[in-house]
Write a structure and sequence with these properties.
Layout (H helix, E strand, L loop, with lengths): L1 H20 L2 H4 L7 H12 L11 E4 L3 E2 L11 H14 L5 E6 L2 E6 L1 H9 L4 E6 L6 H15 L4 H13 L5 H8 L3 H10 L4 H9 L5 H8 L4 H13 L4 H15 L11 H18 L5 H31 L1
Parallel strand pairs: 2-4, 3-5
Antiparallel strand pairs: 1-5, 3-4
Helix pairs in contact: 1-14, 1-15, 4-5, 7-9, 7-10, 8-9, 9-11, 11-12, 11-13, 14-15
Length: 322
């Protein structure tokens, strides 16, 4: 049993070292999207802008329209919608909404602010046009992304959620995501990292419109969800900066990775509990440790495992002599 435990500890140490040394590009390496699927989606995206110039205006009942279930935009400025509502009341609806007929249901493609403004007036009819090129919900999602990206009205959390969806559900490369959203590859990587925030915290970032990408990227690298939450609350209530987050993380990592001397165990049970807990602690805090602190931690654990092995061998020898 002890031999198996030693083997398990050594394997965990090796895995943690490999994880620490692994580059960011290794973590996000992906296969290229299939050419046929890519071309199909490119064609949809390229139709954005001017495709409806000759479309016939249709009057829709607001109650027959289904919102895009994957609408990338989650945050709406209620004051701006109220102003738009007043404008429509005075001057009428100047721009039609866009609708897609998918499997017999009418989905709103673009114009949710206009739809909300019309509903705020208590009206049940709205002008719109049909986009015949959108035939699936995936098409609908891509078109909505392109439209919102073109207007640059998505907040940091919304962009991060889009990057995550395109990367993990649609198998888009990071380069293609950057082209679609009109942002740099560095920005794509940053938003993908932000998407790793706990889901409930990413929702807060979106709904509270927290636009601090550098700060959010650093917060998302913290493994402890409660710790993430504390930083998000700070971002909501104070002007927390990237340097503030880094300083707090460094302070925390120093408290975790103080240079301790290897412990000399008196019993096998004590050694098992201590080393197991230390491995768990290292795995939990690995991203918060500097290279120097990490190496110190590993070296101490290696020494303690050797000490445990000596104790185990001595114990086995005593049992044989008895």
């Amino acid at each position: 049993m002890n031999e198996e435990l030693l083997k398990k500890w050594n394997e965990e140490l090796a895995a943690l070292v490999a994880k620490k040394n692994q580059t960011k590009m290794d973590k996000i390496r992906i296969k290229e999207i299939e050419k046929k699927l890519q071309n199909k989606k490119d064609n949809i995206i390229n139709e954005v802008g001017g495709v409806f110039a000759q479309k016939q205006i249709t009057v829709f009942n607001v109650n027959e329209l289904t919102l895009n279930p994957k609408q990338p935009r989650k945050w709406f400025d209620e004051r701006a919608i109220a102003d738009l509502s007043e404008s429509i009341k005075r001057y009428g609806q100047l721009e039609p909404i866009v609708v897609a007929d998918i499997a017999g249901k009418k989905y709103l493609v673009s114009g949710e602010r206009r739809l909300r403004a019309v509903k705020l007036l208590g009206q049940n009819r709205i002008d719109g046009v049909i986009n015949d090129s959108i035939r699936t919900l995936d098409d609908l999602y891509l078109f909505a992304i392109a439209e919102n990206a073109d207007r640059e009205n998505l907040n940091c959390g919304e962009v991060s959620q889009i990057v995550k969806n395109l990367r993990e559900e649609n198998n888009f490369t990071f380069e293609k995501i950057g082209q679609l959203l009109n942002i740099s590859k560095t920005a794509v990587f940053r938003h993908y990292q932000i998407s790793k925030l706990a889901p409930e915290l990413l929702d807060i970032v979106i709904l509270k419109n927290i636009n601090k990408p550098n700060v959010l990227e650093e917060i998302s690298k913290i493994d402890d969800i409660d710790e993430q939450k504390r930083y998000i609350e700070l971002a909501l209530t104070t002007e927390i900066s990237l340097s503030d987050v880094i300083k707090r993380k460094l302070s925390r990592s120093k408290s975790v990775a103080k240079e301790k001397k290897p412990i000399r165990f008196t019993t096998i049970g004590e050694g098992v509990v201590h080393i197991s807990n230390e491995l768990l602690s290292l795995e939990k805090n690995i991203d918060n440790l500097s290279k120097r602190d990490f190496n110190n931690y590993i070296n101490r654990l290696v020494s303690e495992i050797k000490e445990f092995k000596k104790l185990k061998n001595a114990h086995s020898l005593r049992e044989q002599n008895n």
